[in-house]
Amino acid sequence: MSAAPLPAPPLRLRRLGIDTYQEPVLYMHLECPVCRSEGFEAQSRVEMTAGGRTIVATLNVVQGGFLGVAEAGVSEAAWRMLQAPEGSAVALRHPPPLESLGHVRAKIHGRKLTAPAVRAVIEDVAAGRYSELQLAAFVTACAGDRLDQEETIALTRAMVDVGERIAWGGGRVLDKHCVGGLPGNRTTMIVVPVVAACGLRMPKTSSRAITSPAGTADAMETVAPVELDVPAIQRVVERTGGCIAWGGAVRLSPADDVLIRVERPLDLDSQGQLVASVLSKKVAAGSTHVLIDVPVGPTAKVRSAQAAQVLARQLEVTAQALGLHLSVVQTDGTAPVGYGIGPALEAHDVLAVLRNEAAAPPDLADRALLLAGHLLELGGAAPAGGGRALAHQVLATGAAWRKFQDICEAQGGMRQPPVAPFRHAVAAQRSGSVLAIDNRRLARIAKLAGAPRAACAGLALHVRIGDFVERGEPLFTVHADSPGELAYALDYAAVQSGTVHVSEDA
């Protein structure tokens, strides 16, 4: 009688140093006995346990000598999530069936998502049970105007409920958000110190870029640390009255951070998900009074006053359902704000405004003062119609600059934004007046140059609508961290003659 086969030895954890962004990925050898016996295939979802932690990862199958048959290789994202020593024993199994995916399929086929269905999907998303493909299906199913008001409210509530919440006690807690689509619109880094300098609380948790060359967190990170946990945020706000932190570093609406991971490469930002994304993080951060900036322009995210009104109504109804006091202000979105587009370049603009430098971009200062004024009135620090004057005084006297420095020091120390080693100017091909500037094309050029991944990358705009330029004068300068990225961006710019539209004046 033949002996029973010996059990396969346990797999051992191996860190492969592969960057898969935020997606946990598992790597197994084609001849791995566990892989074969369990019937795991490439793109299978696998539940893995090591060192007492369990995650769900997407499987990639490898051949050759890259990985041993008794090794379970993991990407950097999976390594961070497991937090187990290399060489730890790894247990693998098929995850339980993903029941909530049925709700996603129903939505794809046109059925409305109920509140329990939304809750089930978001719980699974936050727990990391959805693969990138499944996340993409959910994002696409909700894209455009496919979420009605009830679905949007349900999505917002679910996003809040699956994460942490910060409690600030009594009193008003202020916040602001821009819906985006306007390069260089880095007003938050000016508004927060102005508001905090007036004795109000403004714990700002900001996002990184989704479809833009820079988010507030990206720009702020070039000046000070932004990856603060909840206790750190509370300490900074108690000390200074404000903060500018990355929301992804804390579990405030964690499902939103997962969805953003997929929205970025898809270049999708649906209205219902935008509303849920913005408001869920405001509620989770403990905000009571929120100002929403909606830039309107032909190449902004919101292209007409009518579309802005529809968005404002959806924001207001959802905010009311969640107990938020919300105000929406429409602003000019016809052209970029400031001179820089990209994390460090936008940070340089912010510092120039806060320091009251003569060369500071006046449009960035004006917009920041407008928004800060609204918030000061919302917070009760200024009477109706008197907020902007108070904000101007705080900026002009240097109080905002001193408060910004205090915030940076409290967050871990202030530093200077980096400067790109490779730069090239794009010149006007003819003399004439600047008639229009395409926000989307400029943003695209900045991203091709490496922003926001390379903090120093992007572009510096040298003209404004209405300016007269001579042939050969620079319209903008592309900044890059490598010659390859610089060339890539310039190649695109060369075929986009309408990015900065110059008239044919003699």
Return Rg in Å. 25 Å
**Biggest β-sheet description:** 6 strands, mixed, barrel
Number of strands: 18
Number of helices: 18
In helices, the fraction of residues equals 25-40%
Structural class: alpha/beta
What is the name of the CATH architecture of the largest domain? 3-Layer(aba) Sandwich
The averaged pLDDT comes out at 92
Shape: globular
What is the CATH third-level topology name of the largest domain? Pyrimidine Nucleoside Phosphorylase, Chain A, domain 2
Within CATH, the superfamily of the largest domain carries the name: Nucleoside phosphorylase/phosphoribosyltransferase catalytic domain
| CATH class wording of the largest domain | Alpha Beta
Strand content: 15-25%
Going across the major beta sheet, what is the strand order? 1-5-2-4-3-6
Span from first to last CA?
100 Å
* Low-confidence runs: 1-6
Number of domains: 4
Protein name: Putative thymidine phosphorylase
InterPro entries: Glycosyl_Trfase_fam3 (IPR000312), Glycosyl_Trfase_fam3_N_dom (IPR017459), Glycosyl_Trfase_fam3_N_dom_sf (IPR036320), Nuc_phospho_transferase (IPR035902), PYNP-like_C_sf (IPR036566), PYNP_C (IPR013102), Pyrmidine_PPase_CS (IPR017872), Thym_Pase_Put (IPR028579)
GO molecular function: 1,4-alpha-oligoglucan phosphorylase activity; thymidine phosphorylase activity
Family: Belongs to the thymidine/pyrimidine-nucleoside phosphorylase family. Type 2 subfamily.
Overview of the structural elements:
The protein has 506 residues and is an alpha/beta fold. 40% of the residues lie in helices and 19% in strands. The protein contains 18 helices and 18 strands. The protein has helices at residues 33-38, 76-82, 101-108, 115-126, 132-141, 149-161, 188-197, 216-221, 230-240, 254-266, 271-284, 305-321, 343-354, 362-378, 387-396, 399-410, 439-448, 483-494; strands spanning 11-15, 25-29, 45-50, 53-62, 71-74, 89-93, 174-178, 202-206, 242-246, 289-296, 325-332, 340-341, 422-427, 432-437, 458-461, 468-469, 474-480, 500-502. The strands form five sheets. A six-stranded mixed barrel has the order 1-5-2-4-3-6. A four-stranded antiparallel beta sheet has the order 12-15-17-13. A three-stranded parallel beta sheet has the order 7-10-11, with helices on both faces. The chain starts with 10 loop residues before the first strand and ends with a strand.
